Each structure stands twice: as structure tokens, then as C-alpha cells.
Amino acid sequence: MKNYLEFHVICFFFRSVKNPQEFWSEIAKEFYWETPATEDKFFSYNFDLNKGDIFIKWMEGASTNISFNLLDKNVKSGNDVLEIAFLKYQQETASACYCKTS
């Protein structure tokens, strides 16, 4: 691994694969939701063609405003530092971009 950020991304990935509902439930708690996801519609999937069409559904029926979560929520809470991380996956490689205002 090249650096701490890459290590952090890999740890996040493995946690999300091992127990996706628990992982994404924790992440979702950090956001403001106009309409929160209900527990029974938070995460569902089928990877078995014998049981019907293949699908993955996340937070069905939930809605949020990502701009509010990114900017307004932080300003209202008194944070004068904004941190943004962007992850890009393409075929066999992954890259990360991180910026912080002070």
C-alpha cells in the first residue's frame, strides 16, 4: 500500500463486503435524510437466477439532498473546515482524491 488513505479505502471496502447492511447503515447515520430508509427496505438483493431476476436495492424510498449534506449541514454546525474524498474505480485500478479547506 502506498499510503494511509489507500489503506483506509481498502479497509472500508472489506467492511462493506463483509457486512454491507451494517456498513452502509453506519454511513447513512452521518447524513441528513428528508425521507429516511426503513429497516426492511434498507438493503435487499438476489444473485441467484433460480430465484428470479438479479438485483441489488439500497435505501429504497429514501431521499436526501447531497448538497445540503456536503455544505449546509457543515456550515450550520460551525465547521469551518470542509473535507471531501472522491474514489474512482476503473477495471483493476482505484484512485482517490482528497481535499481539505482550512
Automatic annotation (TrEMBL):
InterPro entries in the cross-refs: ACAS_N (IPR032387), ANL_N_sf (IPR042099)
Biological process annotations from GO: acetyl-CoA biosynthetic process
UniProt GO MF annotations: acetate-CoA ligase activity
Domain Acetyl-coenzyme A synthetase N-terminal: 15-69
Entry protein name: Acetyl-coenzyme A synthetase N-terminal domain-containing protein
Natural source organism: Frieseomelitta varia
Taxonomic path: Eukaryota, Metazoa, Ecdysozoa, Arthropoda, Hexapoda
